[in-house]
Amino acid sequence: MLAAALRRLAARGQPALWQDGVERAAAGALTRVAAAVQPSQISSTTVQRQEVGGPPTWWQQLINLTLGAWVQHVIGELIRSRVEKEFDVKEFLEGAKDAFHTVHELMAAEDWEALKPMMSAKLFDAFKDTADAYKADGLLWRTKLGPEPWEAAVRGVGFMTRQEMEAYDPAVALLAPESVAMAAGPTGMFLVVTAQLRVEQNVTISRAEDGQVVAELKDMRPVRWRFATGPLPGGLPVDQLGTQWFLLSI
Fold this sequence. Notes:
single chain; alpha+beta; 4-stranded mixed β-sheet; 4-stranded antiparallel β-sheet; 8 helices; 8 strands; disordered N terminus
């Protein structure tokens, strides 16, 4: 199943495919730090500190327990009826959390070779370009994730054509047929599932030359990561998909 594949990938640290919201430049806390703390604004004598987000309010929790749970159930049923009969929402979310942790670990280690095959080309370039921009200014960016339990929920599902995938990763798009017959349903398309994650992210920016911390950010806002797999085979729904998953955008 897809969730099992995500967990196996995260556990082994082996190459695979991943995707979601690259339109906003980089990923998760890295994008937010880049927006909130520009390298040119960092002082060499003071530490900039910022805290954003926080635990959900009582009414947000109520919405998540009611409407959010219903949305997640509907998405799960849709995938099981149209794509993968053995799709398990809980397993998928465990895989998404493992992926979230693995990506941040590899970024901290600057292991770009391991990261590159795990996500779309567009997202990888956004990650790398942002990190390089900080490095060019003599700065290093690091994120430490808070302890579990992390909040996780499925918040979206959709299908992407070859032409749409080309905007994220032309090489992956070539795996799909040039055109798909309407009667074939999602066959030949890519399945895209959005996971929402909420975890404390403690970001530090330090000087590369001496390690002195110059900026800190505590971020508790939820993030949405979109995972994709495909192209989908014929004869849907199948018991289990045999295609790899990858991070499409964030």
